[in-house]
UniProtKB/TrEMBL annotation:
It catalyses: D-fructose 6-phosphate + L-glutamine = D-glucosamine 6-phosphate + L-glutamate. Pathway: Nucleotide-sugar biosynthesis; UDP-N-acetyl-alpha-D-glucosamine biosynthesis; alpha-D-glucosamine 6-phosphate from D-fructose 6-phosphate: step 1/1. GO terms for molecular function: carbohydrate derivative binding; glutamine-fructose-6-phosphate transaminase (isomerizing) activity. This is glutamine--fructose-6-phosphate transaminase (isomerizing). Transmembrane segments: none annotated. It comes from Nelumbo nucifera (Sacred lotus). Its EC number is 2.6.1.16. Keywords: Aminotransferase, Glutamine amidotransferase, Repeat, Transferase. The chain holds residues 322 to 692 of 692 of the full protein. It is an enzyme of class 2 (transferase). Residues 47-186, 218-361 form the SIS domain. GO terms for biological process: carbohydrate derivative metabolic process. The lineage of its organism: Eukaryota, Viridiplantae, Streptophyta, Embryophyta, Tracheophyta.
Length: 371
């Protein structure tokens, strides 16, 4: 039931304040006078000791689920102090890459039925690793065949383009980092500030959804373009990849997510006054580096659309020479949840304006059950 919405993708984008609330329900502990704020993930609590002792955490997924894991990697590294590596399921299988008994392997999948991810799970089980699932579908193959895991509880997602599952996956993986890192005193203040940020996140997402009309206007400007680049780095490298994936899969427009740190190693050659470029430059530890990327794109007359933290337009766009999307600022590691929303809205409006099928893009299936 689409309710008041025209398409499932639109409905699922707009219901993110609620889906995120459900994802966190019962899992964040507010703490009290002598009790610290903490996270409780019932599905993995008995396995935390083993996870903390593992030599490596390996994330495996495809498409959007891979991007969600990538968004969460920095906070896992920071809070857990365990090396974290990333694998696209098909690529791991192509290489038969090393997976060891001492590894914790985390399988991320909305449907829990993706063939490549399932085959990678079989492979990791054969190699004796602890296998953890993060899925939206209770009773799915991944939920059944992993040793333990966490349901993201985002509610049924119908649109082929994954939207609310992405933001809930990130939140679950941030909670996973908080749970694994729970045994170190030195991170306590940082952990508590992230938990505070999680409590506020649904209302921040509600706020960023107000950009709907602005994104529709931007879509009108961009609807006849051939291509759109999205630059991000740090926590928001994944936002660049995921924003570009949305535009590509539903609006059928070429789009590429680019790691801003790689700009001078090739992509800069593409820049001219016609090609639209979204630069994600919300305020975090990479901010000054992003400012200098913007300056360099600007020097090549790049057609810039900059996403920045509210009130910082003048820091990213001196002289008002570019289009600015201002978003509410949240704790750095959950900023990707806020930042993807305007790009989801942009992809949605581009698709409607270009006259394509929003919920079932050509050639794609919601759940890819063949290799
Ligand atoms: C569980 C209940 C929830 C209840 C709550 C109360 C289910 C599905 N969840 O939620 O209804 O309100 O307790 O305490 O009944 N698992 C995997 N692989 C996966 C995902 C999950 O093995 O990919 C396993 C978990 O290890 C766990 C079980 O499935 O044993 C349920 O996981 P989850 O729903 O995340 O647990 P809770 O949040 O505790
Ligand atoms: O169900 P899964 O999360 O395993 O699906 C993985 C990908 O097929 C999926 O995320 C795909 O990239 C989406 N269509 C993206 O919107």
């Amino acid at each position: 039931n689409k309710g008041k919405y025209e398409h499932y993708m639109q409905k699922e984008i707009h219901e993110q304040p609620e889906s995120l609330t459900t994802t966190m329900r019962g899992r964040l502990i507010r703490g009290g006078s002598c009790k610290a704020k903490s996270v409780l993930l019932g599905g993995i609590k008995d396995h935390l000791k083993t996870i903390r002792r593992s030599r490596r955490i390996v994330f495996i997924g495809c498409g959007t689920s891979y991007n969600a894991a990538l968004a969460s990697r920095p906070i896992l590294e920071e809070l857990c102090g365990i090396p974290v590596t990333m694998e696209i399921a098909s690529d791991l299988l192509d290489r038969l890459g090393p997976i060891y008994r001492e590894d914790t392997v985390v399988f991320v999948s909305q449907s829990g039925e993706t063939a490549d991810t399932l085959l990678a799970l079989e492979y990791a089980l054969e190699n004796g690793a602890l296998c953890v699932g993060i899925t939206n579908t209770v009773g799915s193959a991944i939920a059944r065949n992993t040793h333990c895991g966490v349901h993201i509880n985002a509610g049924c997602e119908i649109g082929v383009a994954s939207t609310k599952a992405y933001t809930s996956q990130i939140v679950v993986m941030v909670m996973l980092a908080l749970a694994i890192g729970d045994d170190t005193i030195s991170n306590q203040t940082r952990r508590e500030s992230i938990i505070d940020g999680l409590f506020e996140l649904p209302s921040k997402v509600r706020e960023v959804l107000k950009l709907d009309q602005e994104m529709k206007d931007l879509a009108k400007e961009l609807m006849s373009e051939q291509s759109l680049l999205v630059f991000g780095r740090g926590y928001n490298y994944a936002t660049a990849l995921e924003g570009a994936l949305k535009v590509k899969e539903v609006a059928l427009m070429h789009s590429e997510g680019i790691l801003a740190g790689e700009m001078k190693h090739g992509p800069l050659a593409l820049v001219d006054e016609n090609l639209p470029i979204v630069v994600i430059a919300t305020h975090d530890a990479c901010f000054s580096k992003q400012q200098s990327v913007i300056q360099q794109l600007h020097a090549r007359k790049g057609r810039l659309i900059v996403m920045c933290s509210k009130g910082e337009a003048s820091l990213v766009c001196p002289g008002g020479s570019c289009r600015v999307i201002e978003v509410p600022q949240v704790v750095d590691c959950i900023q990707p949840v806020v930042n993807i929303v305007p790009l989801q809205l942009l992809a949605y409006h581009l698709t409607v304006l270009r006259g394509y099928n929003v919920d079932q893009p050509r050639n794609l299936a919601k759940s890819v059950t063949t290799q």
